[in-house]
């Protein structure tokens, strides 16, 4: 990231949840930065990827608590912002595609209305223009019948369509930073490639920063510039995406070994053997 | 015996009414033998989940034939049907009741079907899917995506069904848990001679899990291949070839000829 501008810098981020069985530490003191590049965050389920993404937008719901020394965006510390200033950041400067797309859509409003309202809010465009823009975005994310989908309610669209609708909505305001949490996990690979190509173009042409949260190692290594590997709320390793196959940490190596391969059938998939010391190792700093 | 465990013939599924009808599934036919594992792959919106939902009785507006062990199924199902067949849904967020604890989610099917020994079964199920008893009294919003999907798999297993309909059962899981869940599903299939119908967009997963694979596009089955044919990359249809290529990772050259 050396000669690039830093968009986001996070230092010593913690997320904690009080529960019946004591405090769950979802994120444990991680530090990283993102420039105008594609940064992948991988790691097993529960490792804290989504909470890291949500923390950046200060979207941790109570009783969860988030603390950090710094979460700065283009030099401004977001921790000092009022709730009102944060609302302006969310969806305008930083967008997030949530992991649970249908969950984040309003169930009683048509998909089209939600997208065009989002656009109107951001641009002040007329209803007609907003509708045109919304249909254009649906087409851009490879929705086959944009008119039909525009008039559908969230429960009437397929899983993969829901994800693409969310992506369309988040890209409309032209954000500086997009946090995409498992944005393509419900898409078949060919549509997935096209959606990734759209994001890729935004990074290359408009200098958008992208945090790409995924559990698909092969995808992240082929798509991103850098990868951050999380385990137990910490960063255990970070490397260039193209170097992921040479990862050193036994956790990362275990994840790679667990992947089924089309041309290399196995009766049983390798299962990760977790070493308790991984949890206590110090978090790796991932500024570049 | 040659009777298939599950047979679908000329299945059509429609949404909407009057002049506004949309046909989501168009003359789909396939058979799955007892103890077999059949995969459905295909692009988003091609009708995969809809096929599963029609089979499991969640959609009533279909025609064609659906048979389980030679017995024709009507759109409406008896309670006993669900001891034979269970479904794991694509979206673990929508499929778990947000205000029920994991304990309640797992006990409920037992209560509905008058099965006793609840505590032992719930703890065993949690253990089977790799969640300890610490998760028993959590609510869905206190679980990560993968943990929720494991709860969904556990719930489907509570009634010890013979057929599992699996809709993207691991698409929300990371690879290490995916490996655990896929190994678990393979073991269960062998131990209990279960029959699977599995939807996934991950060709490596389908190759690992299924013996036969149908490719869907626009509501139709466009190609059926054995796993061996798939491994040898011998698909006939252009769409299937594209699918295989794209599953090798992101390649900016992939759409070189296309305006993105
Ligand atoms: N409201 C909550 N109360 C208690 N624990 C929680 C809560 N929300 C999340 N957690 C815990 O925080 C940890 C991190 O969760 P997070 O959602 O960030 O995981 P993730 O890496 O995104 O996983 P996945 O790949 O499954 O989505 C998990 O162990 C989860 O159980
Ligand atoms: N309840 C509904 N009302 C109207 N249309 C519906 C409904 N459910 C599904 N559809 C439509 O039927 C088509 C097939 O949807 P389905 O969910 O079966 O796709 P899928 O192959 O499972 O896709 P994905 O891989 O994205 O999950 C889609 O065009 C969808 O919009
Ligand atoms: Mg997550
Ligand atoms: Mg589906």
From TrEMBL, chain A:
InterPro entries: AAA+_ATPase, ABC_Ni/Peptide_Import, ABC_transporter-like_ATP-bd, P-loop_NTPase. Residues 8-257 form the ABC transporter domain. Its main location: membrane. Coiled coil: none annotated. Gene3D superfamilies: P-loop containing nucleotide triphosphate hydrolases. This is ABC transporter ATP-binding protein. It is a peripheral membrane protein. Belongs to the ABC transporter superfamily. It holds the Pfam family ABC_tran. It is found in: Cell inner membrane. SMART domains: AAA (SM00382). One of its GO terms (molecular function) is ATP binding. Keywords: ATP-binding, Cell membrane, Membrane, Nucleotide-binding, Transport. It comes from the Bacteria.
Automatic annotation (TrEMBL), chain B:
Pfam families: ABC_tran (PF00005). The keyword Transport applies. GO terms for molecular function: ATP binding. CDD domains: ABC_NikE_OppD_transporters. Keywords: ATP-binding, Nucleotide-binding, Transport. SMART domains: AAA. The keyword Cell inner membrane does not apply. Residues 6-243 form the ABC transporter domain. Belongs to the ABC transporter superfamily. PANTHER family: D,D-DIPEPTIDE TRANSPORT ATP-BINDING PROTEIN DDPF-RELATED, TRANSPORT ATP-BINDING PROTEIN. This is ABC transporter ATP-binding protein. It comes from Roseibium polysiphoniae.
């Amino acid at each position: 990231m050396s000669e690039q501008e830093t968009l986001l810098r996070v230092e010593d981020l913690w997320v904690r949840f009080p529960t019946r069985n004591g405090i769950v530490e979802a994120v444990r003191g991680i530090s990283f930065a993102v420039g105008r590049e594609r940064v992948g965050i991988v790691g097993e389920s529960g490792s804290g990827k989504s909470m890291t993404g949500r923390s950046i937008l200060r979207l941790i719901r109570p009783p969860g608590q988030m603390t950090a020394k710094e979460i700065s965006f283009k030099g401004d510390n977001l921790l000092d912002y009022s709730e009102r200033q944060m609302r302006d950041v969310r969806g305008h400067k930083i967008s997030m595609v949530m992991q649970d797309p249908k969950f984040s859509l309003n169930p009683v409003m048509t998909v089209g209305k939600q997208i065009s309202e989002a656009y109107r809010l951001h641009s002040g465009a007329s209803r007609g223009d907003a509708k045109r823009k919304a249909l254009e975005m649906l087409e851009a994310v490879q929705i086959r019948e944009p008119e039909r989908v525009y008039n559908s309610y969230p429960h009437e669209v397929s899983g993969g369509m829901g994800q693409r609708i969310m992506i369309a909505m988040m890209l409309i305001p032209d954000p500086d930073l997009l946090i995409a949490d498992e944005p393509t996990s419900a898409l078949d690979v060919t549509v997935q490639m096209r959606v990734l190509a759209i994001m890729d173009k935004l990074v290359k042409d408009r200098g958008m920063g992208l945090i790409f949260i995924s559990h698909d190692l092969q995808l992240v290594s082929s798509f991103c510039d850098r990868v951050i590997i999380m385990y137990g709320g910490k960063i255990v390793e970070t490397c260039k995406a193209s170097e992921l196959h040479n990862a050193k940490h036994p956790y990362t190596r275990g994840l790679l070994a667990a992947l089924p391969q089309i041309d290399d059938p196995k009766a049983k998939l390798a299962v990760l053997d977790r070493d308790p010391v991984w949890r206590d190792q110090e978090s790796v700093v991932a500024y570049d | 015996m040659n009777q298939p465990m599950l047979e679908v013939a000329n299945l059509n599924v429609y949404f909407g009414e009057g002049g506004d009808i949309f046909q989501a599934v168009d003359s789909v036919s396939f058979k799955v033998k007892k103890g077999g594992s059949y995969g459905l792959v295909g692009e988003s919106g091609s009708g995969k989940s809809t096929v599963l939902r029609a089979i499991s009785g969640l959609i009533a507006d279909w025609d064609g034939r659906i048979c389980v062990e030679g017995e024709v199924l009507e759109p409406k199902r008896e309670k006993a049907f669900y001891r034979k067949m269970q479904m794991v849904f694509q979206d673990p967020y929508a499929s778990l009741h947000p205000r029920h604890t994991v304990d309640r989610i797992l006990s409920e099917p037992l209560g509905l079907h008058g099965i006793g020994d609840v505590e032992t079964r719930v703890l065993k199920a949690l253990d089977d899917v790799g969640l300890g008893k610490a998760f028993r009294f959590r609510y869905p919003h206190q679980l990560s995506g993968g943990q929720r999907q494991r709860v969904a798999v556990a719930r489907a297993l509570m009634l010890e069904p013979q057929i599992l309909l699996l809709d993207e059962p691991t698409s929300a899981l990371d690879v290490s848990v995916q490996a655990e869940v896929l190994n678990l599903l393979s073991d269960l299939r062998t131990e209990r001679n279960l029959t699977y119908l599995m939807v996934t967009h991950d060709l490596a997963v389908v190759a690992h899990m299924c013996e036969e694979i149908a490719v869907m596009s626009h509501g139709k089955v466009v190609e059926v291949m054995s796993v061996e044919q798939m491994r040898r990359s011998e698909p006939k249809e252009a769409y299937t070839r594209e699918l295989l290529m794209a599953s090798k990772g992101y390649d900016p050259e992939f759409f070189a000829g296309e305006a993105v």
